[in-house]
Model the fold of this input.
Amino acid sequence: MKISIVGTGYVGLVTGACLAESGHDVVCVDVDPRKVDMINSARAPIHEIGLSELLKHHAGCRLRASTDLAAAVTETQVTFIAVGTPASAGKIDLKYVEAAASEIGAALRQKADYHAVIVKSTVIPGTTVGVVRAAVENASGKIAGDGFGLGMNPEFLTEGTAVADFSQPDRLVLGGIDDRTRQVLRDVYATFDAAVPRVLTNPTTAEMIKYASNALLATMISFSNEIARLCTAVGGVDAIDVMCGVHQASYFTTRRGNEKITADITNFLEPGCGFGGSCLPKDVTALIGQGREKGLAQDLLQSVLDINRGQPDEIMRLIGRHFESLRDVPVAVLGIAFKPDTDDVRDSPVFPIIRKLKAQGARLTAYDPVARPVDHEDLVDVKLAGSLLDAIADAEIIVLVTRWAEFARLSNVLASLERRPLVVDGRRVLDPESFERYEGIGR
Done:
């Protein structure tokens, strides 16, 4: 099929590259000429495992990028909307989605052939059949279901493994206003493993599936952190041991021969310094906002956010066990990206931690193997180290925020320096016995 995708962020570009890999002809549209040039030159504008290889293989052949949305719509059969949906004033901001839908509609006004418009962006339930439908119909002069197809196909990608997640999905949610739209989506994914469940539904249900999925993951993380706080208060119990025991339940495990396999979802049932990124905080906030508009208090989801916002205080409490004052104390913060294997720093838990450390007068150095957002406001007066060794060379306190694999060798690097700083493990990925002074969330 001939496919166009509006937006070349983590979702749009990964979708485009992977659909090209599956045999489709894809044009990715973006307003940023720099990103368009990079994609056409087979250079990835974002850090994502496997993406560079796909671009090198398909750019200039099955995959290209353009700033001309109208031309892209005219020459393709289906257009995916994959633009950003930031949170603003406690609710989702749909201005980019609405603008894209209007431009697509304007292009469809000049096109006689049937064309399907599919929302890929994460939007609150009712957006596709509401805001998007109205924008496309008003701009095109056509009626959804007659002049064009309309659907919602949410993504379930984890940054860092997005290419693998897209290529080998655990489910395909295909939401359309009619059978014809849903058939278009079936055709898009026709080459994917037939064993992958296809959930055929309407757009609003598809939107809710996406939000419910992310809200569940955020809830599991905050649940783990609340249990971790109680473990600490009780004493003599480690939250890691507790959660390890929880993970062994039959509903979290399966057997492969004589081997017991623990489900990946247990990764979200572990204590840490909180969740961040472009999805979980924003999506939970959006659901709470929509509930408020409907007159419903989303108390559970609100508590999920409240617990998450309190996790930086847990880091500071652990430091406070050892330091009465942080004035001029050198502190190394390990990890800037909100998770490993990505350069995305949106809503990273590192920033509230940095703000609290700054407020107490600490001298800060930060290091991340990939993410280096030099213009971020929270990194003013923070030294960005070029290596792990450089970051911790003079530190009296080391705070691990992101579970990059590189940080597993922290004890060896410290041994070479013969230093004994306080190590605060915000992800519980280090061996406490490897450090003379160690503190960990939930310990």
In short: The first strand starts at residue 2 and ends at 6. The two ends are 54 Å apart (CA to CA).
